[in-house]
């Protein structure tokens, strides 16, 4: 969410009515999240000036660990230098730390491609936005889910119930520090996640939604202490009943 919001902001800066705007003091502390969108808190160090040049050799974009040769345009400006400076700073301050984590395994190669392409400045901001939008579409639609055996049939479902909230086993990347709370596309995906975790014996699908509209599921090591909840469904592994009838 943070990275997608950032690239949308950089897309606007690259195509603003004032021209391409560069953030000269590009640091994480210069941004805040407001209603799920990233905002710049300080525009004092923003500039529309692009580096003047006479030849391509005048247009090297230097960073502490990398340098990029750019073209000198016909009007004597280093072509796209503001856009590329913003994008590489987004890569080194945000993408590097956020993109490799917490995505479903099937989407990680696509995020790795974005990471590598922006780190080498092979992508401009237009290509970066399109790549993020593609990943978001796959994530929201569930198209990233690979065909696999149907596992939900191995679970008993109880509508209108949930377990008593409490501390349970933890997983990564959980929305709760007290247990294992993950976003899912469907109960079938939740069943696959539960089967992949040795501690998991049940999971609860709630009406809570993430920013993408995906429901949250709580994965638990037991299914005792059920209480009524009209907005939840608890799924229990058939094998955990040890032959007892629910």
Describe this structure in words.
The chain has helices at 2-14, 81-98, 108-119, 125-141, 187-196; strands spanning 22-23, 31-34, 37-40, 46-47, 60-62, 67-69, 155-163, 180-183, 202-209, 215-220, 226-237. The protein folds into 2 domains: 1-144, Transferase(Phosphotransferase), domain 1; 152-237, 3-Layer(bba) Sandwich (Hepatocyte Growth Factor). The model is unreliable at 242-246 (pLDDT under 50). The protein is 28% helix and 23% strand. The strands form 4 sheets. The chain has a 5-stranded antiparallel β-sheet, with helices on one face. It is of the alpha+beta class. Helix 1 (2-14) packs antiparallel against helix 4 (125-141) and helix 3 (108-119) runs antiparallel to helix 4 (125-141). A hairpin with a 2-residue loop joins strand 2 and strand 3 (37-40). It holds the Pfam family PIP49_C. One of its GO terms (biological process) is skeletal system development. GO terms for molecular function: non-membrane spanning protein tyrosine kinase activity.
**Which strand order do you get reading across the main beta sheet?**
7-11-9-10-8
- CATH superfamily of the largest domain, by name, is Transferase(Phosphotransferase) domain 1
The rounded Rg comes to 24 Å
Terminus-to-terminus distance: 41 Å
Question: Total strand count, please?
Answer: 11
Q: What is the CATH architecture descriptor of the largest domain? A: Orthogonal Bundle
CATH-defined fold name of the largest domain: Transferase(Phosphotransferase), domain 1
Helical content, roughly?
A: 25-40%
Number of spatially distinct domains: 2
What would the average pLDDT be, to the nearest integer? 90
- What general outline do the C-alpha atoms trace? elongated
Largest sheet: 5 strands, antiparallel
Given helix and strand content, the structural type is alpha+beta
> What is the count of DSSP helices, taking H or I runs of 4+ residues?
5
Order of helices and strands: HEEEEEEHHHEEHEEE
What amount of the residues lies in strands? 15-25%
Uncertain parts: 242-246
Keywords: Kinase, Signal, Transferase
Domain FAM69 protein-kinase: 2-116
Protein name: PKDCC kinase
GO biological process, one term: skeletal system development
């Amino acid at each position: 969410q943070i990275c997608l919001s950032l690239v949308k902001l950089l897309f606007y800066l690259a195509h603003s009515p004032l021209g391409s705007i560069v953030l000269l003091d590009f640091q994480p502390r210069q941004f805040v999240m407001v209603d799920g969108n990233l905002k710049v808190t300080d525009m004092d160090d923003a500039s529309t000036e692009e580096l003047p040049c006479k030849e391509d050799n005048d247009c090297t974009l230097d960073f502490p660990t990398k340098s990029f040769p750019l073209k000198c345009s016909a009007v004597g400006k280093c072509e796209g230098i503001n856009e590329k400076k913003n994008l590489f700073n987004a890569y080194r301050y945000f993408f590097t730390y956020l993109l490799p984590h917490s995505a479903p395994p099937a989407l990680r190669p696509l995020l790795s491609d974005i990471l590598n392409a922006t780190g080498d400045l092979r992508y401009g901001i237009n290509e970066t936005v399109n790549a993020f939008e593609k990943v978001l579409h796959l994530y929201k639609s569930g198209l990233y889910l690979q065909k696999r055996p149907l596992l939900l049939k191995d679970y008993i479902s109880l509508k209108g119930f949930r377990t008593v909230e409490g501390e349970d086993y933890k997983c990564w990347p959980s929305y709760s520090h007290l247990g294992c709370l993950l976003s899912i596309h469907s109960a079938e995906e939740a069943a696959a996640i539960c089967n992949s975790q040795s501690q998991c014996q049940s999971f609860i699908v709630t009406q809570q939604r993430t920013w993408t509209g995906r429901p949250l599921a709580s994965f638990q090591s037991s299914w005792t202490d059920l209480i009524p909840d009209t907005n939840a469904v608890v799924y229990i592994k058939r094998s955990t009943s040890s032959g007892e009838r629910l």
